[in-house]
Give the backbone structure.
Amino acid sequence: MRVFVTGASGWIGSAVTEELLAHGHKVVGLARSDEAAAAVEARGATAHRGSLHDLDSLAAGVAGADGVIHLAFNHDFSDYAGAGRTEHAAVRRMLDTIEGGDRPFLLASGLASGVSSRPVTEDDESPFRGADSMRGGSENLALDHAGRGVRAVALRFAASVHGMGDHGFVARLTEVAKEHGASAYVGDGSTRWPAVHRTDAARLVRLALEKAPAGSRVHAVAEEGLRSRDIAAAIGDHLGLPTVSVAPEDADAHFGWIGRFFGLDIVASNARTRELLGWEPTGPTLFEDIAAGAYAPAELPE
């Protein structure tokens, strides 16, 4: 299958590209810079120059593909609403291009669903609709096309997609711990985050491309909910720093932009995804990666 992948040079996208190529697929990766294009081509894929703002470039990439995996997102926390509007417009243009051919269209999404009394399941709909909602309401925008000749699938990724070289949420928590001389959590630390190893996430994406039916939501989740105080403790243990609590009203001042996410309680099931795709996570756990030095050397700089 010839697959158009946005975000192909990114943390998840590069692993997905390698997974697809290893299983006989051809990859055309969206690249917005010379550096990104070189990274895509170094893995054996074809670079397609463009960006999420260049809707014509997206349409051209989709038009020549047998399927699409949309992983790119503009993580600009200074204008998150604007990033959502960009996402909505990009997804709509790609869907308009692919519509009617029964080709797969997979897109990255999150696990926020408004559910708080139990783990989020694959049956729980996203509450976000419209360009001004979280991530531009792109999950529902895509799934609404499932009955219009598109095999639309929502890829719901855990808060931490971890591994050696990860520069995401846990990496930022580690930086904050080093800056303050203590590894912190919010309140009583009972809030939880799901996690998945990067290689497991990539394998799930490939399996979803090959066999997930239209309208599916799949959960790239291996560990369903790790307590924030345990995540902080694992970081602190590796760095040799104390673990402390930060009052909720002080979270923004202490953590910066990541404070709003670290205080969220998100627990997600993977049972239906495993049954649907025959997917079994096999990679290291988040705590194993932290202990192995995925985020920081054990010795702090003087």
User: Anything to note?
Assistant: The radius of gyration is 19 Å.
